[in-house]
Amino acid sequence: MNYWILKTEPGAYSYGDLVKDGKTLWDGVRNYQARNNLKAMKKNDIALIYHSVTDKEVVGTSVVTKEHFQDPTDNTGTWVVVEIKPKSKLKKTVSLAEIKSEKILSDISLVKHSRLSVMPITKKHFDKILKMSS
DNA sequence: GCCAACGTTGGC
DNA sequence: GCCAACGTTGGC
After folding, report:
1. CA-CA distance, A97 to A41, in Å (whole number)?
2. Pairing assessment for the beta strands A46-51 and A3-8 based on DSSP bridges
3. Cα Rg for chain A, rounded, in angstroms?
């Protein structure tokens, strides 16, 4: 079981949209590192959903329901998607500022590689963020 | 194959 | 709205 963070601009697609849809294809990823992370995602892995730009906070968790396959919005065969469904909304969102203020979270990818849209997170860090959300 | 130019992302 | 960071593109 692995843990991930998926970043999205809530103006484009928010966690609320995911809840409303019940499931979604995480498409439109056009970055090789992010793609490689998508490819490493396994069914039942857990991903935190992070709202970038306007909110800058982690808002909920999701579950991988289908492992990677070709992105239907891409005809070059280069890019892939996974399917996820919502798991649970955080009782309290965890902001980027809060994450940065926690010493053990200060060097996670979310902070260090702010432009990467799909990134792994260790269980320890995942648990810490969940703890901060309750 | 190098690197300058350019476009995009995302925090502030 | 600005700008730093970074990835990609294209000329050489």
Report:
1. 27
2. parallel
3. 14
- Cα A53 to Cα A32, A40, A86, A106: the distances in Å are 21, 26, 21, 19
Structure tokens at A125: 């860090």
- Asked if the Cβ of residue A37 lies within 7 A of any atom of strand B, the reply is no
CA of A115 to C1' of B6 (A): 17
d(CA A94, CA A132): 7
The string of pLDDT tens digits covering residues A6-48 is 999 999 999 999 999 999 999 999 999 999 999 999 999 999 9
CA–CA distances in Å: residue A116 to residues A21, A24, A88: 25, 20, 23
Distance CA A50, CA A59 (A): 6
Amino acid A115 CA to nucleotide C10 C1' distance, rounded Å: 24
What pTM, to 2 d.p., does this model score? 0.94
